[in-house]
Amino acid sequence: MEYFRIGRIVNTFGIRGEIKVIADTDFPEERFAAGEVLTILDNDRPVQKVTVKNAKLSKGTYIVSFEEFNNINDVEKFKTKWLAIDQDQQQELDDHEFYFHEIIGLKVITTEKEELGVIKDILSLGSNDVWVIKRNKPKLSDALIPYIEDVVKEVNVDEGFVVIELMEGLIDDEN
User: Fold this and answer.
1) Rounded CA gap, 161 and 138, in Å?
2) How many CB atoms lie within 10 A of CB 162?
3) Smallest Cα–Cα separation from 142: which of 173, 104, 97?
């Protein structure tokens, strides 16, 4: 079974078994809705299935309680662990929308057929995501490519590549 992280448990909250979670999902309202079944992961291994009892957003983190726990002592051991969903719980996305795990690892090719490297990370910076490209040439630093229509011309998840229009000044081949 493949799991996808949706949030990191950063601390306990109160004495009734609630936890504080920093969400790592575009769908926090759905993921932390009452009745949702999540998996607690430790080093990407499933530890326990839990059912969301209640969740609320407070100062940038989610306060989540589970049906299975009602005491701080029950959840203390889960600090620094991850909450995840399994592949069957992923939502269908619209055209030109992708999950991070679908993009990371794709080969990046320019419209001139030059292979630049591989997407190694995605930064969510507000108006648009920025893809971090690990360059093929070892002495070159990572390239940052904005995920915008003027730059990203094609995303082919099935074939494993992305085509970009290399605009002037977008990447530095000197460093």
Assistant:
1) 20
2) 24
3) 173
Query: Alpha-carbon distance 145 to 109, whole Å?
Result: 12
pLDDT tier, 109 (very low <50, low <70, confident <90, very high otherwise): very high
What pTM does this model have? Answer: 0.67
Q: What is the rounded distance in angstroms from the CA atom of residue 170 to the CA atom of residue 114?
A: 15
| 103 Cβ contact list (under 8 Å, min separation 6) | 119, 122, 131, 155, 157, 162
How far is the C-alpha of 69 from the C-alpha of 26, rounded, in Å? 26
C-alpha 123/C-alpha 125 separation (Å) is 6
What mean pLDDT comes out for the span 82-93? Answer: 83
Residue 175 has pLDDT above 60, yes or no: no
| 64 closest CA partner among 32, 40, 36, 94 | 32
